[in-house]
Structure formats: C-alpha cells, structure tokens
Amino acid sequence: MKEWLTRLRERITTLWGEWKAPQKMVFVGIVAVTVVAVVMLVLFSAAPSQVPLLRRPITDPQQLTDIANRLDAENVVYTITADNRIMLEDERTAQRMRSVLTREDLIPSGTDPWELFDVERWTLTDFERNVNLRRSITRQLEQHITALDDIDSASVTIVLPERQLFASDQNPVTASVIITPKPSSDIRENRRKIEGIEKLIRFAVEGLQEENITITDPSGVVLNDFQGMQDFDRLELTRRELAIIREQETRYKQAIVNALAEIFGRNRVQVVNINVDMDMGKRTEETEEFFPIVTVPNNPNTPFDDSEFVLSIPRSMERVDEQYEGTGFNPQGPPGVEGQTPPAYRDLEGLVGRWSNQEERINHEINTRRTTEEKSPSIERITASVAIDGIWRWSYDDRGEVEINPDGSINRTYTPVSEQELAAAKELVEHAVGFSERRGDAVSVRHLQFDRSAQHLEEDERFRRQRQIQMIVLYVLIGIAVLLVSFIVFRLISREIERRRRLREEELARQHQAMREAALRSAEEESAEVEMSVEERARMELEEMAINMAREHPEDVAQLVRTWLSEE
C-alpha cells in the first residue's frame, strides 16, 4: 500500500512538471469550483426546506407583529429570519395564509403575494410574456381560492386588454370566477366571505375594479351581486330585529313568572300578553346642562350639607358714562365763505343743552356640561298583561271527610284574589319589566277565574279511583280476617271434638278392660274356661304386638308418642 502511494505521488509530480502554466491554472480552477460546489451542496442539503410567506421582507415592525399574531391564531408554525422574512413549512400552508392575510387587509403595501414568473428566458416575446402573466395570475388565483376551507374547486378567467394610447379607448380588466362550495358550507349566504374572495381577486389583478368581477356558483347564480341583495339584507335585518324583540319579550315574561310563581303558584299565573316596542334606528343625542359653580365643597364630617355655590361669576365688565352740558357748536366754512350748516341746525345756535348717557355690561360665566350619546337599539314602550287565578279548596264535613256532590264529584269552594294582593303583584310586575311612566309603559294585573274543568275532572276521577282502591283493600282485609277467625275456630272445635272422642274411647277401653279382668277373675275363681270374643282376641294381639314393638324399636315408639302429644 505504501509503495502504491509512493508511485502515485511520483506520477502526479511528473505529470504536474510536464504541464504548462495554463493547464495548471485550469486544473486549480476545476478543483476550487468542485470544492465550493461540494460545500454549498452540504450547506443547502443540511438547511431545512421552508417556503417564504411573502417574497419581500416586512420592514414595518407593527405589520410584522400583526401577521405573526394572525399566524399564531391559525396555529401555523413559522420562522422569522434575520431580514424579517416569514418562512412556513410547505407551499399549501403558505397559499392558505396568503389568502387569509389578503382577506383581512394584512398584506403590506407594495407586496405582491404571487410569484408571476419563475424562469426568464431571452427568447420570449412580449406576447408570450403577456400570456405567461395571464396564466401565472390565473393559476395562482385558482390555487389561492381553492386553498380556502369553504371552496372545493374554482375556475378563473381573466381578460387583460391591450393598453391603448388614450384612456377613453382603454377597455377595462374583467374577471369571471366559478366556485364550487364544499358540502355544508354557508358561503352562498355569507356576504363577508364573498367580499373576501372578491377582494382577493381584485388584489391579484392590476387595474381590476369591483364592478368588473363576477363570482358565480355552478348553477349560474351570481354571488357578489350585493346591490341585488339589498332586499335580502333588509329582510335579514328585519328578522334579526324581530329576534331581538322576541328575546327581550321572553326575558321579561320569564322575569314576571319568576316574580309571581313563588308567591301565587306557577299554575295560577298566566302572562296574557307582553309587547316591547323597540327603536332599532341609530340615534345620536346631545344634551347640554347648566349647573351652579361650587365655591366651597361639602365637608363630609358634618351631618349637613355646608357647601356654598353661586349661580354664575362675572367674567368681563364694560361701563360707559357719557355727559354733555353747554351750547351747541355749528362749524362754519373758511373765512369769507358761507358755512355748510343746514338751516334747521343753524337755528339752534346759542341754545344751551344737557346730555347724560350711562351704560353697564357684565358678562357672567356658568358651568356647562355637554353630553353626546348614541342609542341603538332603545326601548320605547312596554305593555304587559297578567292574569292571576284564585284558589280552589275541597269542602270537608264535621268528621273531616271530603264532601261529595250528588253526581259523584268533589264539592269545592273558590276564593278570589284580593285587591291588596293584586296591587302587590302589579308592583312586582312593574319592577320586573322596568316600568317607566315617562316612557308610557302600561302594566295590567287582573283577577280572572281560569277554566279548570279538565283538572277537576281528573282530580275527581283520581279521588274516586283512590276511594275504590281503599274500599277494595278494606273488604279484602275483612275477608282475610274472617277466614283466619273461621279457621282458628274450626281448628279449636276440631281439636275439642277429637279430644272428647279420644277420651270416650279411652273410657270405653278402660271399661272393657275392667269387665274382662272381672270376667277372668270370676272364671279363675270358678275354674271354668272363658271363651274370648273375636274383638277381644284382636285387641289382645294388638297389645302384644305394641309391647313387642316397644321392646324392639323404642325410638320409633317414642317419636310416635311425641307426634300424638304435639297434635293434641
């Protein structure tokens, strides 16, 4: 291995010595370019692949902060480089965020969010450049529209007319877009989303105006015809206003029920009608108030108000005092020339007059407060009608039982609501709805007897059913008690009859036994044979068998005796 390296080095040295200076320079250049290419390849391959959000750096710090906050709201991972460029992970995310920023006017001024041309060749003509420009704008615009969450697909057609010498001869730039919404999307009814798409298209094409943009769905319905949607907007606004009024009426109705239900009971209170008149127009009111000037503020340590005030203070004063006393003076002309004094005034020469004029003007300053407020919407008038039912009570007799009418229904008495209770209920209702006499509100609380026929029929039926169940249960219990007593009496009588029969049989057995013993004794005494009857022989045999069994099986005989004793 060492010899091979030595030979290789000698060969390279010999070859290097044979080369001329230009060859050596070319070889060194090739080696240097190769080293630089390898280093750049390593650097670019090691760097993460990211896509810029905007081609130009964002120089305004506030705009950079706003865009970063919007990306954070969309949960998008991004990186801000040293030259204020925002880098995203992939191109699809960058397209979606460009459309979002465009819709919300967050694109910095002078920034083109689309890359129009990626490759520039010397052989392209102006016509080809225009075609490429139109293609680039169309393709990027379709990608941006498709990147929206509500759009399934989009088809864009842009017309860029040739520039004319005079502006009056210039045809406008037009754009037509067909969008296919995704299922369950509300983009057809959401005007804000359509305006966002329209703004995105207008920013994508230079010189394109809003009136030259047409956005339709696949069925041909124009979605950006906002002037034609004025009636729809008016109906939608009316619907929302009515919804607000109904919500306010429901809230007041619930407040009335909550105020009276705990006192009278929910089934006794009925809100017959509640109407809220609201002014949905936007109105601005300016109020100017004049109040006195406090010179000495109130001392909080005193139990009374010791503040001092004046209605106004002088700001400026002007006084004129004019007096005149003496003869009148009529000027004459130059010497030798008759004066220009009129004859009427010339006759007043030599008269003595007196003139006096006194004027005094004082300007005062007062406190003024001017308030400007906007009211929308506002409640103009509230009307509420509430009906309260009385109380139905069952009638009871002296024994505490429910009184029943001849038709089988329960006898009831009705107690109406008193005037004091109605007045208290009206006050509660007025507080619940915010009653204002100045506004012209009207609250009516009346006593009305509700129709409770169905409720009474249900109560009567339930009461009759309950009575029937009670009677059935009572009869069943009585029957069970009679059966138990009969069974007990029957058992006692049966046992007594059995006991008497057994005693009678035992007595007869004893008598028969005594008679037999007496006969046997008399027979023995007379030494005569006594012939026993068939029954006596059978009894004797049974006694012998019982005695033998008692001797052989004493436990069985004892159990039999216990059973007899327990039955007796």
What is the fold's blueprint, element by element?
Elements: H1 2-18, H2 21-46, E1 51-52, H3 61-73, E2 78-80, E3 86-88, H4 91-103, H5 126-146, E4 151-159, E5 173-181, H6 191-204, E6 208-216, H7 230-264, E7 269-279, E8 283-291, E9 293-296, E10 308-310, E11 313-327, H8 343-346, E12 352-365, E13 367-375, E14 378-388, E15 391-394, E16 412-415, H9 419-433, E17 442-447, H10 453-526, H11 534-552, H12 554-567
Parallel strand pairs: 5-6, 14-17
Antiparallel strand pairs: 1-3, 2-3, 4-5, 7-14, 8-13, 9-10, 11-12, 15-16
Helix pairs in contact: 7-9, 11-12
First-residue to last-residue Cα separation: 130 Å
Strand content: 15-25%
Major beta sheet, specifics? 3 strands, antiparallel
Helix content: 40-55%
Can you count the beta strands? 17
Q: From the alpha-carbon coordinates, what is the Rg to the nearest angstrom?
A: 61 Å
| Whole-number mean pLDDT | 78
Shape: flat
The chain-level structural class is alpha+beta
Total helices: the number is 12
Residue windows where pLDDT falls under 50 for at least 5 positions? 112-121
For the largest sheet, list the strands in their spatial order: 1-3-2
Order of helices and strands: HHEHEEHHEEHEHEEEEEHEEEEEHEHHH
